[in-house]
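Standup, Tuesday
Yesterday: got the pipeline producing structure tokens again.
Today: sanity-check two examples.
Blockers: none.

Example 1:
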Amino acid sequence: MTSGVSAPDTGRDAALAAKSDRPGLRARLGRYYSLTKPGVLYGNVLTAAAGFFLASGRGTPTLGLFLALMVGTTLIIASACVLNNVLDRDIDQRMERTSTRATVTGSIPARNAVLFSVVMGLVGLAILVLWTNALVVATGIGGFITYVWLYGALSKRMSLHGTLVGSVSGAAPILAGYLAVSGRVDAGAVLAFAMLFLWQMPEFYSIAIYRREEYARAGVPVISVVKGERTTAVHILAYTVAFVVVTLLLPVFGYVGLVYTIAMAALGGWWIYLGVLGLRSSQPATWARRMFRFSMVMILALCVMVSVGPFLP
């Protein structure tokens, strides 16, 4: 005689529990998306667009070329960011702001992340090869190698000058955007590259001050850890001045007009003033956060003014 109550189906219950523990498709896609460092990704793509429009004042752009540049560049930058996350797992787990990345927690295995990176990189490169020019392709490859290998795997871990190397890759997108239209390296290409290269130095050095303790714990030899906050503040001011000077060379060479000059001179003058305040600040971390926030204003303003400057008085 059997009981009227059936025994629990432990196998089915275990399967249902396991299924409920798995993240949904949207959550998994979100994790992969986060590996592309969206803030870094879209900021770099914005500068590529700015370079494109800067050269458009003297070139013959097309919508197809613009779309190919945007899509190809986006995929290559995303590929580099994902691969950088894989390589930086040991550092990221020791820093508060990066300790929850999917490559650190293991929610995305390193093998899957590498495959994701490779697919995006190859598709992005193919787009640039098919629909842009050799200079853009070379810039994309050079920026990728510099960011992933020369910066992420080597100089970032070995030298306080790693930021200089990383800034080379960070300036590659605006150069690629310019070269897509111009097809040649001229004064505009050099100035566009220099502006983005120089802007990154005070931007990152500001982060290095207010996150100094995190970098020290992670063993990353950024300038604030190796040389101290005072020396870092001096470098921030020097690079800020250099950046402003270079932005004001664009009108000298006839690439932009009076509207651009007035706007960038005003904003640049204020950023220099903020930099001077850092030399005597009793709260360097607070000042550095303020300096960093204004660097975001500067890059957005620069991209807008570089894009519209060639078409305004």
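Example 2:
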Amino acid sequence: MSELKNQECEACQADAPQVSGEELKVLIKEIPDWVPEVRNGVMQLERVYKFKNFKQAWAFSNKVAQLAEDEFHHPSLLLEWGKLTVTWWTHAIGGLHRNDFIMAAKTDGLLDS
């Protein structure tokens, strides 16, 4: 399997399969700083990025927003002083798809840019 951050998201329909428990165990190893969370019965991936101040967190949130627009896959973003919480899940299927893991890996890659 190639690195997630180098993979492309695929178009996702409402009948697309959610990531299985076995797939979750494999994929989460590639994005170890992300945590699977269940909210309102929906499995999601979440990571809190910490920064020295609001301006740095804001700048990073803009990078994540541009990535989301480029890929047409949009996370939940919570911008606070010195941190940005990013949450990925696939709304159309009400849970996690492989795309969410790809996007989490790509989000991590933005730290180096």
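Quick observation on example 2: The first strand starts at residue 35 and ends at 39. The CA atoms of residues 40 and 94 lie 10 Å apart.
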